[in-house]
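User: Thanks for the earlier help. One more: FAD-dependent oxidoreductase. Can you show the sequence and predicted structure together?

Assistant: Of course, both are below.
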Amino acid sequence: MNPDILVIGGGLHGLSAALQAARRGASILVLERHFLGRHASGSTAAGVRTLGRDPAELPLSLEAAQTWHKMTDLVGDDCGFKACGQLQVAEDEAALTSITARIDRLAKQGMHHEKLIGADELRDLVPKISPHCVGGAWVPGDGSADPHRAIRAFRDAAKRAGVDIIEQCQVTSLKRIGQSWQVKTSKGDFNAAVIINAAGAWADKIAEMVGEPVRQAIRTSMMVVTERTGDVVHPVISSFGRKLSFKQTAEGTLLIGGGAQGRLAEDRQSASVDVQALSVAVQAAVRLFPSMVGTRMVRAWAGMEAMTEDHIPVIGFSAKVEGLVHAFGFSGHGFQLVPSVGRVVAELATEGKTNQQLDAFNVKRVSEKGVASC
């Protein structure tokens, strides 16, 4: 099996790139070290937000936002997306001042997706919010989705497009020979003209194999879900300056996350829950919603993904070798970007170019210095 394009990593970004490259006529093989969506994609809170994005990400994020509202057109399923809105709460006047300044900066750049709201509108949107909260930023078209439904939808759409997928397949070496890559794996050898590095927490290992070592950390964000409870909140909630993502599912459970980090196993293949660290996110949620006191926690988990120093992903061609496209380092906020990043990566892999401005995502930002290319 010698495809035109070989995708390393079967998370949502790898599947999206594979799907969209296949629809451009390329033959595609996806190799996944574990199982599809096993790590970051399956452990995410699945927030679909333009709210609070780094300005460099906003063009891709705003494009992705439009796709999420018509996701069925892309993958034949809405992936459980609900446009319930996302709300970033200001818990004091200093936070509100910072939010106001950000919205003003966005407006000067012609971006008006975020709306400033005061205390009265905040309570109209979220009646059970604590009285100490003074306002916030609101994006009504944002929301959340179902990560496992999204994984299944992108997998099935990719297969319908002719993409081949091999799971439990570890890449052990990469070598560029002429105009082709020789890829050795735990399940045999393959050749491909182009490699897409969407390996998530292991993307640095793939880059190292081709002589392009990069700096990245492994993020082990945790989530906790509660028992079913009464009506608490409809939008997805965050709090300015705090590590919190908070939403209520259709089943009535509360899902709490936002960046609290778990414990990485010594072999760097899995992560476990750090209860003390997770309690910070839970306490932040209770501070906003005092009615949560006494609600029982049912389950908690930790995922794994790559995190760059500036928390902005790497998207684009390798700076060292031909025929390699990177898409990693989404640092805890890559779920919403899946459709637009997949489009860009597919264009790079099939056409060798894209009209998307990618300077901010250049791999040179995170390249180790003074290391020779192989």
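User: Great, one quick takeaway?

Assistant: Residues 25 and 350 are 8 Å apart (CA to CA).
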